[in-house]
Write a structure and sequence with these properties.
By secondary structure, this protein is mostly helical. It is 58% helix and 0% strand. GO terms for molecular function: acyltransferase activity.
């Protein structure tokens, strides 16, 4: 009985995760800003160095699957394909989108406390954190590096003449 409840909860978790992902894909890229409260770099992150020092993110980040591996119309964040200002701006904003969806999945796992006992609720929350935190770490590691490249090009996301509507039509 408990195993069946756990399997059902994992299936519901997967459905909620898919819904979170679909919603994030539909959000216009123009609403994301790398310097907003959630996405801005914190001093303790030291432009991503914290994640490399404590988690060795460079060693494993390219081994994790990414949704664009399965859905080719999505923006791929596995590797930088070009260094144009528009591409780098888009890449930085897409890291914001990815981070948001993973935080939303973790937060939505708290819904399970409404219909489950503490053990299953904690398991689902732990599962959500374990599955999503690595992706948040990757976004928070990559974004400062991308912004540094943009800064070296003497451009900022807000200062570029980037047409976000045109870039977002593929999603």
């Amino acid at each position: 009985m408990k195993l069946l409840a756990l399997i059902n909860n994992i299936l519901v978790f997967m459905i909620i995760s898919i819904i979170n992902t679909i919603i994030s894909i539909k959000l216009p890229i123009a609403i994301f800003h790398h310097d907003s409260w959630l996405f801005k770099a914190r001093a303790w992150e030291k432009d991503g160095y914290f994640y490399q020092h404590w988690f060795s993110v460079k060693r494993w980040k390219n081994r994790l699957p990414e949704l664009s591996d399965f859905l080719s119309f999505l923006f791929s964040k596995k590797q930088m394909k070009q260094y144009s200002t528009e591409y780098l701006c888009r890449f930085a904003l897409e890291t914001c989108r990815a981070e948001l969806v993973h935080w939303c999945i973790i937060i939505s796992s708290l819904l399970f406390t409404k219909w489950n006992h503490t053990g299953i609720s904690l398991f689902i929350f732990g599962f959500a954190v374990l599955c999503n935190l690595p992706y948040i770490i990757i976004q928070r590691y990559n974004r400062p590096r991308i912004l540094s490249i943009l800064a070296n090009k003497k451009m900022t996301i807000r200062g570029s003449r980037l047409n976000l509507d045109v870039l977002h039509k593929d999603i």
